[in-house]
Structure prediction request, 260 residues.
Amino acid sequence: MAQFALPPNSRVKKGKTYEAPADAKNVRRFEIYRYDPDSGENPRMDKYDIDLADCGPMILDAMIKIKSEIDPTLTFRRSCREGICGSCAMSIDGTNTLACTLAIEDVKGDVSIYPLPHMSVVKDLVPDMTHFYAQYASIKPWLQTRTPAPPDSERLQSKEEQELINTPSACILCACCSTSCPSYWWNSDRFLGASALLAVYRWLVDSRDDATGDRLDELDDPFRLYRCHTIMNCTYACPKDLNPAKAIAEIKKMLVERRL
Prediction:
């Protein structure tokens, strides 16, 4: 599993330690980032000792146990618990991933949990996704057509045409890819990031879409697309095994071919 070091933050202080009961059989320590902007206090790392003999197998199971039985103030997002909604994306053991699909046994030693890097924190492990979603909306992620629909049928695709969009359509907008990218860390105000660009690619290769030229025009910019330097963190981090880096490379190729 690829490791992405978080930027050092000297203001993060030691927090509370919640020890496991004396009769605990299989103890693992979870070190979790805690921060409440409204409190005026600096971030801290709280430590929770969990008896895995009385806990589900996934990281999210341990976090739910902490919130339910130990510390109800712990704040994080979660929903489906099936790796579909993307709500529980966070940095675990130095890697952006989903808490619901990462097994505790796959992390060695103490389990460190942070919010997704280089995003404003609403509270604890909840990042502010406003800008991320605004970037996604800016690429107009819907079918744009100018030709009239067939009078007696849907806009049909061949099996091969459908397969082109099948994989990029599996993106769950968890932001693991974009927030693992150093270029996005420093240029997120203008660089769209891996997730939004993967979404663009999904529509560029859709045989039913008539806005290919407009979509490419929007990307022909020194920042929106070309701040990608093929670092590949996005592909390593994707919990759905997608390949945003390849999609971005294909978009660059489309722009070059259009100029020829």
